[in-house]
Amino acid sequence: MRAESRFGLRVEPIDLDATLGCGQTFRWRRDPDGSWTGIVGRSILRLSASSGGLTVDSMAASPCTKKDISTYLRTSDDIASIQKNLGRDDVLSRGILQIGGLRLVKMDEWECLISYVLATYANIPRIKTMIDSVATAFGAEILDGVHAFPCVNDLREASTEDLSRCGLGYRARYVRAICEVLDPRDLDRMKRLGYADLRNELKQLPGVGDKVADCVALFGFGRLEAFPIDVWIKRALSRLYGVTGSYAKLSEFARLRFGGFAGYAQEYMFYNERSLATAGRCIFSEE
């Protein structure tokens, strides 16, 4: 595919492998040359490391703007300040500087919601396959058979049977039910809610429990105090802090321990646990 536009984006620090490959977003692939190609909105993007930041190639008739990708990569986040804050924690302080290039992303709220409903009880390759199938079936074509994620109104046209043909299994009925009760005005209103109210409202949606609500609050609505808890994070909290128990108990511990940057703490610990499991590399150690 030919690039329609190219621009530089100043963002430091940034580690594309850590940021785009750690399971917080699902429509990216790593290219052999170390760049990453993915879809943001209605744009196909290739991100490559360059001096002081990134080179962004947009390969679609509707190119992504510098503001769009800046929002997506949260370039306004002051990573040094965030790490200084979290570095007061005795455990995180021991390795936090090694992963400064891991940034949180800010996905489209609707895409994030449906993606994480699909992500329940599924591994990352399966999640990517389901999302790509839904996009291909119902999303607008961007270029050469590559499709954007369908908007609310597009996906509302799909029946449960249509969604099931995308390989969603039991998740098809949840996606269909969400389409029936949610519209763009709801999403706009929810953007103005504080974390606690947002989380509670998300949990009223079909197929959305504690973890999905926190993932959507963090990666979609950008609420950095959200702390999603999965098996990796349960393992991390038990190993590093000796804390076990219910989702509510672990959430309370994280909010008190990490405050307004709990989402970054979560992603650092997730990255650490995955590195430990796959490469035997441990950044953080027990107290």
Keywords, separated by commas or semicolons:
alpha+beta; Endonuclease III, domain 1; five-stranded antiparallel beta sheet; two-stranded antiparallel sheet; 287 residues; Endonuclease Iii, domain 2; 7 strands; TATA-Binding Protein; 14 helices
Report what the structure shows:
The protein has 287 residues and is α+β, with helices and mostly antiparallel strands. It has 14 helices and seven strands. It folds into three domains: 5-76, TATA-Binding Protein (2-Layer Sandwich), CATH 3.30.310; 78-99 and 224-287, Helix-hairpin-Helix base-excision DNA repair enzymes (C-terminal) (Endonuclease Iii, domain 2, Orthogonal Bundle); 109-220, Endonuclease III, domain 1 (Orthogonal Bundle), CATH 1.10.340.30. It has helices at residues 16-20, 66-72, 79-86, 109-118, 124-138, 152-156, 160-164, 171-181, 184-190, 195-202, 210-220, 231-241, 247-258, 262-279, and strands at residues 5-10, 28-30, 36-40, 43-50, 53-58, 141-143, 146-147. It is globular.
Round the mean pLDDT to the nearest integer and report it. Answer: 93
> What portion of residues belong to β-strands?
5-15%
Taking the alpha carbons of the first and last residues, their distance comes to 50 Å
Instruction: Provide the helix percentage.
Output: 40-55%
Q: What's the story with the biggest beta sheet? A: 5 strands, antiparallel
Provide the domain count: 3
Fold-level CATH name of the largest domain = Endonuclease III, domain 1
Number of helices: 14
Structural class: alpha+beta
> What is the fourth-level CATH superfamily of the largest domain?
Hypothetical protein, domain 2
Specify the CATH architecture of the largest domain.
Answer: Orthogonal Bundle
The oligomeric state of the chains shown is: single chain
Order of helices and strands: EHEEEEHHHHEEHHHHHHHHH
- Tell the overall outline: globular
Number of E-type strands: 7
- Identify the strand order in the major beta sheet: 1-5-4-3-2
> What Rg, in angstroms, do the CA atoms define?
19 Å
